[in-house]
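Help needed: design a sequence for this.
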């Protein structure tokens, strides 16, 4: 385990820079790991939440992940079309719909979870095993605390706002790959609408 006395002294601002670099490296690898899912990282997050948390409604899923209602509806449409989840009547409120994973969805998440686990192991490989486990546990506690203080905060927006300025300073220019999750989903939604129009006109 690393001795605290051997750690370099931190200065105000280092925390944000360090988090930004780790998050950016993780984000890039994660995007590659979940390639093939309709909606990418967001699809993985939604599918994982549906399976592991069993939230009562689409609204609850959106609140938990801080995803805009319109964006979440589009995501779920794609996931239903890919047969990963299905909308079923809420047994306690027939006007509401509960999101349930299909057998295919369970199988797909199991495969992608292994990929994501490999990414996380790789990101944490720069520190000793015991320290890596401690860091993961501490981050989980810290994230829960921050989420409780601001439950509407979007992790995707936070990553974008945190990493873009740092990467500009490091590289000397803006990252051309940087784009918002909402913009990407809106573009995909427009493309899907165009395809549907073409089919209807065929």
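Sure. Designed sequence:
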């Amino acid at each position: 385990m690393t001795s605290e006395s051997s750690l370099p002294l931190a200065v105000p601002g280092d925390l944000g820079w360090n988090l930004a670099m780790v998050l950016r490296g993780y984000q890039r690898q994660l995007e590659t790991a979940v390639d093939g899912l309709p909606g990418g990282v967001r699809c993985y997050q939604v599918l994982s939440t549906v399976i592991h948390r069993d939230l009562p409604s689409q609204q609850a899923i959106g609140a938990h992940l801080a995803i805009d209602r319109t964006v979440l509806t589009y995501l779920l449409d794609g996931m239903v079309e890919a047969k990963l989840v299905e909308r079923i009547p809420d047994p306690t409120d027939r006007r509401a719909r509960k999101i349930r994973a299909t057998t295919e969805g369970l199988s797909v998440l199991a495969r992608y979870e292994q990929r994501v686990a490999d990414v996380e192991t790789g990101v944490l490989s720069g520190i000793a095993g015991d320290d890596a486990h401690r860091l993961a546990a501490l981050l989980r506690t810290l994230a829960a605390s921050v989420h409780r203080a601001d439950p509407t905060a979007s992790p995707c927006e936070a990553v974008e706002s945190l990493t873009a300025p740092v990467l500009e300073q490091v590289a000397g220019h803006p990252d051309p790959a940087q784009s918002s999750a909402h913009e990407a989903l809106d573009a995909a939604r427009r493309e899907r609408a165009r395809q549907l129009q073409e089919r209807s006109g065929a």
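The chain has one domain: 14-201.
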